[in-house]
Amino acid sequence: MSELTLTVMRLGFLAVLWLFVIVAVQVIRSDLFGTRVTQRGARREAARPQQAARQAAPPQQRGQQGGGRQRRNAPTKLVVSEGTLTGTTVALQGQTITLGRAHDSTIVLDDDYASSRHARIYPDRDGQWIVEDLGSTNGTYLDRTRLTTPTPIPLGAPIRIGKTVIELRK
Amino acid sequence: MSSTTNSPTHHTSTIGAIGAPSRRNTELALLVFAVVIPVFAYANVGLAINDEVPAGLLSYGIGLGLLAGIGHLVVRKFAPYADPLLLPLATLLNGLGLVAIWRLDQSKLLQSLPNYVTAAPRQLLYTALGIAMFVVVLIFLKDHRALQRYTYISMFVALVLLLLPLVPGLGADVFGAKIWIRVPGLGSVQPGEFAKIVLAVFFAGYLMVKRDALALASRRFMGLYLPRGRDLGPILVVWAISILILVFETDLGTSLLFFGMFVIMLYVATERTSWIVFGLLMSAVGAVGVASFEPHIQTRVQAWLDPMREYMLSRNGSNDGILHSEQAMQALWAFGSGGTLGTGWGQGHSELIRFAANSDFILATFGEELGLAGVMAILLIYALIVERGVRTALAARDPFGKLLAVGLSGAFALQVFVVAGGVMGLIPLTGMTMPFLAYGGSSVLANWALIGILMRISDTARRPAPAPAPNPDAEMTQVVRP
């Protein structure tokens, strides 16, 4: 066997061995899973063919596609400032956030004074964030006023639900 | 898992946890890769040594592929959510080990040694038995928590396994270390390899029950949590047993593995750094103490400090009643002549290590023929197995599974460290085998069983949790009374 062939095989084998290691590491990378965000509503039909490809992409990109025009002074996160969940932040990416004691809420409140489906926060067509009380027992307060209709949320205004206070921040 | 109610706006989306996909197809693809690489290596050895593609190439490739395929199908049926990497990584190491053993079989020098048996066909048989072991573990161990019931029985079994080599007539003294037993009709068995798994079960079960007492009842002194005297009991007992193994079986490796695994699991169970400090101090005291009067250990330490002197003593036929060996120096030379990229399969001279070239010293063959690049890749593959084991422990939901996974992967990591470190001259040599690579039935069988248990734990851990039951008091909201 010629020297050249053996050298090529030697280097080729090392390359293949390392390729295996790299592929294995890639598998580990794709094995880390977080949350899946799926578009619903009017865009559902259009989005379906792309969904599979999108699931791997980071959620920020999807949020902006779904959220439409992002305003300049738009809040980027929701912060819990009082209550048992103090310090929790949720990134605002165009999705609806539900609050309540139900297990499937986005923010599950461990609070005897909150209803199971207490309130929700969602962006309207212009990207303005709206808070809406979902018929809760003890009501949702924006600043000091009890909400009766869906109301736009000013930046930094406290929203009180039971013992929990949340606010939107940039 | 949907979190939103229907909304008239088109911005609505759903947030839900992404359930772990089963990843079986990824495993299959990697497995094909892991079978192709050793077949490539096998062809390469044949071309380099005999100038022709070896005659057994097809049957060898089909054999390894078939074994891996059976393993994969069983995983698909019995552990569909298990980790996708463990099986391919273990298969690759096992396949590469087979090639290296076959390559050493070709050496005229080794064939001329007395007592030398052609090892590759036997190793293929052991691999088949190993995969069978893996399959049996996956089929019959439906839930790893069943092992918890056997905590104290495991302790007893492990002690018996560890002490078996000392039984007169059963134990066999192989070149100084008494870690073998002779089973009529089966050949030699190394019970320590199996004891490693059984012990992990015992430690996990024991620590799960006692960890609170060990972690919380302690006094703080100079930044360390000092455990109470009576809580020191278990670690002292384990330490004493490992010292006894060291003295009576003169086997540094098993003793280190045994004690190291306990300290790792103790640390994971209690989160107290003081246990690691204690463990290191105690093992240092024990090792130095025993080395001061045990001639076999002294020889090993001397061969480590000055391998060249041992080599010369062995060459000159020194007659001071101690078995000198040139292995350590030859292994270092093998690594040295391999350099960065190695000499290529079949073109090195690692057979000069002679005895145990295809078992304890097999890493030297890889060092010489694949060079630093190849050894690093192999060590990374070991590291990936350990990483998957620890990841399994993180994902496991029950404390027993967590501790067992940590213990098994810790023991695996320690074994790789002890053997690789010994062969490379980082620590004194011990008579242990490189998991999966080295020739030896006990080692292959025990390590496949270990991988099987890890896969079972990871299947339980990654299986999507059943949907939560509706909360009975979900609607019982208290009313604020002004």
UniProtKB/TrEMBL annotation, chain A:
<dbReference type="Pfam" id="PF00498">
    <property type="entry name" value="FHA"/>
</dbReference>
<dbReference type="InterPro" id="IPR008984">
    <property type="entry name" value="SMAD_FHA_dom_sf"/>
</dbReference>
<feature type="compositionally biased region" description="Low complexity">
    <location>
        <begin position="48"/>
        <end position="63"/>
    </location>
</feature>
<dbReference type="InterPro" id="IPR050923">
    <property type="entry name" value="Cell_Proc_Reg/RNA_Proc"/>
</dbReference>
<feature type="region of interest" description="Disordered">
    <location>
        <begin position="39"/>
        <end position="75"/>
    </location>
</feature>
<feature type="domain" description="FHA">
    <location>
        <begin position="97"/>
        <end position="147"/>
    </location>
</feature>
<dbReference type="InterPro" id="IPR000253">
    <property type="entry name" value="FHA_dom"/>
</dbReference>
<protein>
    <recommendedName>
        <fullName>FHA domain-containing protein</fullName>
    </recommendedName>
</protein>
<keyword id="KW-0597">Phosphoprotein</keyword>
UniProtKB/TrEMBL annotation, chain B:
<keyword id="KW-0472">Membrane</keyword>
<dbReference type="InterPro" id="IPR001182">
    <property type="entry name" value="FtsW/RodA"/>
</dbReference>
<protein>
    <submittedName>
        <fullName>FtsW/RodA/SpoVE family cell cycle protein</fullName>
    </submittedName>
</protein>
<feature type="transmembrane region" description="Helical">
    <location>
        <begin position="361"/>
        <end position="385"/>
    </location>
</feature>
<feature type="transmembrane region" description="Helical">
    <location>
        <begin position="254"/>
        <end position="270"/>
    </location>
</feature>
<feature type="transmembrane region" description="Helical">
    <location>
        <begin position="55"/>
        <end position="74"/>
    </location>
</feature>
<dbReference type="GO" id="GO:0008360">
    <property type="term" value="P:regulation of cell shape"/>
</dbReference>
<feature type="transmembrane region" description="Helical">
    <location>
        <begin position="124"/>
        <end position="141"/>
    </location>
</feature>
<dbReference type="GO" id="GO:0032153">
    <property type="term" value="C:cell division site"/>
</dbReference>
<feature type="transmembrane region" description="Helical">
    <location>
        <begin position="28"/>
        <end position="49"/>
    </location>
</feature>
<keyword id="KW-1133">Transmembrane helix</keyword>
<feature type="transmembrane region" description="Helical">
    <location>
        <begin position="153"/>
        <end position="172"/>
    </location>
</feature>
<feature type="transmembrane region" description="Helical">
    <location>
        <begin position="86"/>
        <end position="104"/>
    </location>
</feature>
<feature type="transmembrane region" description="Helical">
    <location>
        <begin position="406"/>
        <end position="430"/>
    </location>
</feature>
<feature type="transmembrane region" description="Helical">
    <location>
        <begin position="436"/>
        <end position="455"/>
    </location>
</feature>
<feature type="transmembrane region" description="Helical">
    <location>
        <begin position="192"/>
        <end position="209"/>
    </location>
</feature>
<dbReference type="GO" id="GO:0051301">
    <property type="term" value="P:cell division"/>
</dbReference>
<dbReference type="Pfam" id="PF01098">
    <property type="entry name" value="FTSW_RODA_SPOVE"/>
</dbReference>
<keyword id="KW-0812">Transmembrane</keyword>
<feature type="transmembrane region" description="Helical">
    <location>
        <begin position="275"/>
        <end position="293"/>
    </location>
</feature>
<dbReference type="GO" id="GO:0015648">
    <property type="term" value="F:lipid-linked peptidoglycan transporter activity"/>
</dbReference>
<dbReference type="GO" id="GO:0005886">
    <property type="term" value="C:plasma membrane"/>
</dbReference>
